[in-house]
Amino acid sequence: MEDLSLHVLDVAENGVSAGASIIGIMIDEDLEADLLTIVIEDNGKGMSPEFLHKVLDPFVTTRSTRRVGLGLSLFEQAAMEADGALNIESTVGTGTKIVVTMRHGHIDRKPIGDMAATILTLIEGNPSVDFVYNHKKGANAYVLDTREIRSELGTVPLNHPQVVSLIKENLTEGLKEIQ
Amino acid sequence: MPKISIEDLKRIKEEQIGKMVLRGGQYRAKVTVHMGTCGIAAGARDVMSLFRELIAEKDMQDVILTNSGCAGLCAKEPMITVEVVDTAPVKYVLVDREKAKKIFEEHVIGGHVVEDYALAIGSETMAV
Fold it and tell me: Would an 8 Å CB–CB cutoff place B26 in contact with chain A?
């Protein structure tokens, strides 16, 4: 994975596979504390304590099409390379929360990458799931909540091309403003 | 912080009244981008972004773009599946921007399978 936005996409897709109806993605760039925090939280089916214990092992996966699972292990590695860590809290029936921390200014920290493309891909690819994206940088913040958009749209799906274009424009401008 | 304007959303909603039959489960073509860890690492998100641009450019309301997980052929990622209504789904492998453009023009719009890039036609069986 070249950047953190791809890791976020990967972990959020896990949430979709876990049957989540809402996925929260929070990125906090605290420049004063030199801390980058990424939280991905879903209300999917969760993991058992036994599975949780071994989930960061690359040779563990829920997939039946292959025998290795690299998503979380790769993300953990990216965090550790930047003096950080990846923590998972999960409860069966309630959901999963992944918290990743890194030193913001660490020379080996991967760049955040194209978060707009990640969020758009998630929304367009999974129009029945809601996404709440919260990105803070210093004192500035950007929030996108698909529940608000959905309630205005009525029966028009979130993956309608015109809706996707609007969201794209909003994401691009919103993320530029907080830089 | 900018907000998506409610007026814009309402306008889309009003324009779509009467057209909804098409996207409510019915579509002419569906493009599925495989978005497992392997696909993402190999560039699946860029392929998805390109299809989004092409669909918007041609304003193709009857084409659905979606994603799925790993299909078990990680070495062949990025992979996409194109399903044109009433024909067999086709999986394309090692898709890049150039291939994606050709697949969009010839298969999604034209209805002709780009055999050179296809893995298998008419088979939904996964390799193990």
Answer: no
Q: How many domains does chain A have?
A: 1
Split into its structural domains, chain B has a count of: 1
Q: What is the pLDDT of residues A80-128, one digit of tens each?
A: 999 999 999 999 999 999 999 999 999 999 999 999 999 999 999 999 9
- What CATH number has the domain bearing residue B29? 3.40.30.10
Domain of A85: which CATH number? Answer: 3.30.565.10
Interface-testing mutation among A6, A156, A165, A168, with chain B (most B C-beta atoms within 10 A): A156
Look at B12 and A156 and tell me if their CB atoms are within 8 Å: yes
Instruction: Give the ipTM.
Output: 0.84
* Residue partners of B84: CB distance under 8 A and separation at least 6: B28, B29, B107, B108, B111
CB atoms within 10 A of CB A82: 20
pLDDT at A52 (0 to 100): 83
B27 touches chain A (CB under 8 A): no
